[in-house]
């Protein structure tokens, strides 16, 4: 049986449908037994759903470069 750490490490892959066969069965079995992991998986599903609905405006590459330069400069100080 998987432990909670193993389930949380595989949650994104599980939600995305990238866990198959015995791995999927093991996760489902753990979720049947563990209400904490069921809650965790539910929250990750909701989060992925909400983030997937957001639309982000394109960002000018020069702005990204400027921000990265500032970060590097701040780290040197």
Strand content: under 5%
* Sheet with the most strands, sense and barrel status: none
Rg computed from alpha carbons, rounded to a whole number of angstroms: 19 Å
Number of helices: 4
What's the total count of β strands?
0
Poorly predicted runs of 5 or more residues:
none
The quaternary state of the protein chains shown equals single chain
Architecture per CATH nomenclature, i.e. the level-2 architecture: Orthogonal Bundle
Mean pLDDT: 93
Overall form? elongated
- Highest CATH level, the class: Mainly Alpha
Distance between the termini: 50 Å
Q: Sketch the topology as an H/E string, one letter per element.
A: HHHH
The number of distinct structural domains comes to: 1
CATH topology type:
Arc Repressor Mutant, subunit A
Classification by helices and strands: mainly alpha
Helical residue percent band? over 70%
């Amino acid at each position: 049986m998987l432990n909670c750490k193993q389930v949380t490490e595989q949650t994104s892959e599980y939600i995305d449908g990238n866990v198959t066969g015995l791995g999927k069965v093991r996760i489902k079995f753990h979720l049947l037994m563990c209400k904490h992991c069921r809650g965790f998986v539910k929250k990750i599903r909701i989060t992925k759903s909400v983030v997937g609905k957001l639309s982000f405006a394109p960002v000018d590459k020069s702005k990204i470069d400027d921000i990265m330069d500032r970060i590097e400069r701040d780290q040197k100080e």
